[in-house]
Amino acid sequence: MEKLKIVGLSLLLANSFWSCEKDDICAEGTPTTPNVVIEFYDAANPTTLKTVTNLGVIAPGFTEGDGHNGVSKITIPLKTNEDVTTLHFIQNGADDDTSDDNIDILTFNYVREDVYISRACGFKTLFQLNDGSPVVTDGDAGLWIQSITVDHSYIQNENETHIKIYF
């Protein structure tokens, strides 16, 4: 009787694997909703990449965000349920000392496009930055970000730089 239970469970388990179809599992390398890719440049020498030190990126109303240190390129997510994402870019904000924080508020304006991938993966969202005001800066009087340019306004992957920030 015990052997019959083991054989029955084995057949049931094997049947569950045989009944899976290709579109029941979302493959690991399937492209998903892309993040916006931002590169930082030296404002005094606009062709030279510049690394950020203790950069904090946080959404308004949150107490924790992403810290970036010693990099010249970052990726950040945009909201997939709204056409606007506002983030605080905090110079010296990735450490515990808040006395030297310099906050610039960046607002990303875009149109969303939901694209169907498959039954297992669902949808991904692509973004088209607005022509007139794709990224708006609204910080304190001592803005550390001097200028922003948009290289690629259609955000469909993370293989290219979308936005350049000069500081």
Summarize the structure in words.
By secondary structure, the chain is mainly β. It is 10% helix and 38% strand. Strands 2, 3, 5, 6, 7, 8 and 10 form a 7-stranded antiparallel β-sheet that branches. Strands 4-1-11-9 form a 4-stranded mixed β-sheet, with no helix packed on it. The radius of gyration is 22 Å and the shape is globular.
Radius of gyration: 22 Å
Relative strand content: 35-45%
Q: Strand pairing plus helix content: what structural class?
A: mainly beta
Total helical elements: 1
Cα(first) to Cα(last) distance is 75 Å
Number of strands: 11
Largest sheet: 7 strands, antiparallel
Percent helix among the residues? 10-25%
The run of helices and strands is HEEEEEEEEEEE
What are the low-pLDDT stretches, counting only 5+ consecutive residues below 50?
none
Principal-axis shape equals globular
Mean pLDDT: 88
Set down the secondary structure blueprint.
Blueprint lengths: L1 H17 L17 E6 L13 E4 L7 E3 L4 E4 L7 E8 L10 E17 L3 E8 L5 E3 L9 E4 L3 E2 L7 E4 L1
Parallel strand pairs: 1-11
Antiparallel strand pairs: 1-4, 2-3, 2-5, 5-6, 6-7, 6-8, 7-10, 9-11
Concise summary:
This protein is mainly beta and 167 residues long. It has one helix at residues 2-18, and strands at residues 36-41, 55-58, 66-68, 73-76, 84-91, 102-118, 122-129, 135-137, 147-150, 154-155, 163-166. The chain has 1 helix and 11 strands, in the order H-E-E-E-E-E-E-E-E-E-E-E.
